[in-house]
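Just curious: can you write whichever protein you like plus the matching structure tokens?

***
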Amino acid sequence: MNTRLNTADFNQALLNFLDQSPTPFHAVASIAARLDQAGFMSLKESDPWVLQPGQGYYTTRNGSSIIAWRQPVEAQGFAAGLRLTGAHTDSPCLKVKPQPELLRQGYFQLGVEVYGGVLLNPWFDRDLSLAGRVTVRQSSGQLSSHLIDFKKPIAVIPSLAIHLDREANAARSINAQTYLPPILGQATEKPDFRALLQQKLLAEQVDVAAVLDYELAFYDCQKAALVGLDDALVCSARLDNLLSCFIGLQALIESRPGNGQVLICNDHEEVGSASACGAQGPMLTQWLDRVLPADCNRYAVLANSLFVSADNAHGIHPNFADRHDDNHGPRLNQGPVIKINSNQRYASNSETSARFRDLAYRAGVPVQSFVVRSDQGCGSTIGPIVATETGIPTVDVGVPQFAMHSIRETAGAEDAIGLTRILMELYQS
């Protein structure tokens, strides 16, 4: 069992990472900063690569997806296959529309578009901030992109008082077009949102002649925290799936150089992964083209590899236990979960599950199983996509959590470090 990790330090670093990563762009920047500190080297996709044995590298795409890896120590190290962990950087949220300005009843609001399968009710009456990426024209005429984060409450989506909606607690459907535009303040004329972004960037000493475009999302200002009388729970926004990104990152950094060790964190999983930087796009296969030696047997390398698709699982909720199969209700702080679906919504099979169980045994970490009720539909992950695109043997796993796709989610404080220890065994295998 690997005991190098300290639970208290691990969870504090996790909380910091969650708070620093309000959007996929910020998450990738946070991951890159930690890789820099660990001695990994940044490579641009547009440059030629000269790779050294045992050295760690990373490359990004769209600023929202990242692949980090260590080259094998031995020249023939690829023959043993790759050890890959995959996760996703995006989370369901409310994104600002291109022409968002609204002035209604004297209130300045922004039109928003629902991204992914958002649980909408929890977004009401929260202190919201705004973050993302802004692309500008500089005074020289050149284009540049910058991360932006207001870092303080600038908006709210107020609920309608129960006096005006007596059925609110019994039945309330949410119209995403009319109910969700956040209020940013009061105004007598419609403000220019791009001008507001320009003022924000200028205040941060960014050269901005004009704001050309942006990708911005609202997020909850409440900080990530340990919760419970014994701090047994982690509560935060975006646990699905930044929790898995952090787990994979820590496992890679803490592992000793060996055979091919890979972490890939893709954007756009919550909307189907079909993009240039999504798991269904060519990012991973193009990376394989560049990294695998020309004289290796590519198909043998992939056949000898193992891909661990890490995406959170549904923990059994004590108030809704009937929503789970009686024998497959994972509990928080009882170990990571192998996710299984006979209709291939998850890519786990008996052999890849057994390999994961063996890694967990070596790490001294318990493992649970999840199968959706036979009368319910099943979600999916990047696991089946990667398995289909590459042929790499794949297992779907995840840390159990409550309130998936809510603005604030809950997981166990012991499970993340447990899965990290298993992935360290993966990288050393």
Q: What stands out?
A: The chain is about 25% helix and 25% strand. Residues 155 and 184 are 5 Å apart (CA to CA).
